[in-house]
User: What shape does this take?
Amino acid sequence: MPHDATDSHAIEHALNKADSIIVKLGSQVIVDDAGRLAIDRIASYVSQIADLHLKGKRLAIVSSGAVALGRQRLNIKAETPLTPEQKQSCAAIGQSLMMTMYHQFFRHYNIEVAQVLVNPSDFSDRQRYNRLKTLLHSLLDLGIMPIINENDAIPDLQCFDEQWASSRLSPFSDNDKLAALISAQVNAHVLLILSNVDGLYTTNPFENASAERLTYISDLSLLEGIDTSGKTSLGRGGMASKLQAAELANFGGSHVVIASGLTHQSIQRLLNFKGDNGDFSATFIASKATQDTRYKQWIGLASGYNGVIVINEGAANALLKKGASLLAVGVVDVLGQFYAGDVVAVHMEGALDEVARGIVQYSASELALIKGLQSDEIKDVLKRPDVEVIHRDKLVVEVI
Assistant: This one.
């Protein structure tokens, strides 16, 4: 959709001054249609990233492609479904191939690379989250290029209870969500998501010729109702996962650019955009995050949680409509094993959708003993003063 000169100059200002950038390279641009490494294209990305790095920019790469590369080495066609064990094997083989490639390319620019493999649990556990954050900042301070990917070779277990399996520790959807979480961790100014589509559209551009690209998004509410159906055979993601990643990174404080990585000098062209040059051939989503939203971004939007607290309707109304903390009297059930300080999901009795997510102040075993009790009854059970189950300041009621 058309954007005016004010939008163009806002994009120019945000991108030209960005000093911290996460570049997410999807499977669609890392490998070609035959599942082989797109060597010339990757060499171009490395050249552009290296140039920015040598100019003093702080960059990290979130790179997909390991499973696809492993498929190719094992002669498994892209359209052939993989068993979980085959996927792990492909990832283990593909990771070494991918890192060898990046090492060889960046060596030409005297830039050292480091492999960082993560799982959703590295974001749901606060201590591991902080250790990962420390590692990434250390690498960037040393001038080393982090190459980040999901650890598909040794994935997280995805559930503690079959009823909740669809929610806990879900994969990163072709690394889109991972890139957004990394952006928030390192306080990146810009997350650049490169795929085979030059932005978000009002509907699927591969199926509808009248689809219009959304060029400048100043408010996430403008994205409601757009059609995000469709994905490629190589990647697990699609427009839906990119939209979710954009919302997550935006909430965490990063501007987001969704663009095609198939055009000439795509990274430099986007980051050096000049507003007077006319059309911005991508989607730019402006961030308006605050320090409070950065903290709650981890609580509410991290990739997993360690248990489920089921509450009654009265407690749900208090959380959603009155801005209250969660008290033990409103708890009807406790699922999973967690400890004080862990992130947990909150569900209303009889519903699978999350009401909220927050940092719990009791362990699962303690909460099982005091669920349904009034505050003045808790000290007789636990022999210590009661606290809120989840304090309002550590509770997020809108979860992506």
User: Anything to note?
Assistant: Residues 231-237 have pLDDT under 50 and may be disordered. The chain has two domains: 5-296, 305-396.
